[in-house]
């Protein structure tokens, strides 16, 4: 006698088509698809400050630093030109020796002889943390790098 003859015969499991469909539909039902509610023709989504930010922005210790590629500094006139910020964000400039930044217009003149490495630019958003700071020296070096690359064309 062999060992296989002592095992009971295999049992056939029969499943109804409805049960089979329910098991396949369960993952779709749990994850869902589309919007949780049907959009209405009412009020459009808010375009207020910070409403379009990805979740990781609110979780950071600071907002992302300003885009140095979009800020220009003219060494001959000493004028720093800042780009337009969205919503209620506003520019801040911290001069050497100041404990905190002060609000700045879109064009700010930096006094001659001021060490550019110690002039910091950042922005603030009401109700949130300020952005990371960048120095005017970094902004100038970014602009110089772009100018030197343009000469290669």
Please give a structural write-up.
With 153 residues, the chain is an alpha+beta fold. It has a domain at 61-150: Immunoglobulin-like (Sandwich), CATH 2.60.40. Strand 1 (72-74) and strand 2 form a beta hairpin. Mean pLDDT is 77; it is low at 43-49. It has helices at 17-31, 55-59, 136-150, and strands spanning 72-74, 79-81, 90-94, 102-103, 107-109, 120-124, 134-135. It comes from Gemmata algarum. Keywords: Signal. This is Lipoprotein. Residues 1-21 form the signal peptide.
Q: Indicate the percent of residues in helices.
A: 10-25%
The second-level CATH architecture of the domain at 61-150 is Sandwich
CATH class of the domain at 61-150: Mainly Beta
The helix/strand class is alpha+beta
What portion of residues belong to β-strands? 15-25%
Order of the strands making up the biggest sheet: 4-3-6-7
Please report the distance between the alpha carbons of the first and last residues. 88 Å
Largest sheet: 4 strands, antiparallel
> What is the approximate shape?
rod-shaped
Poorly predicted regions are 43-49
Task: From the 3D structure, determine the CATH topology of the domain at 61-150.
Answer: Immunoglobulin-like
Radius of gyration, rounded? 30 Å
Q: Please trace the helix and strand order, writing H or E for each element.
A: HHEEEEEEEH
Strand count:
7
How many DSSP H or I helices?
A: 3
Mean pLDDT: 77
Signal peptide: 1-21
Keywords: Signal
Protein name: Lipoprotein
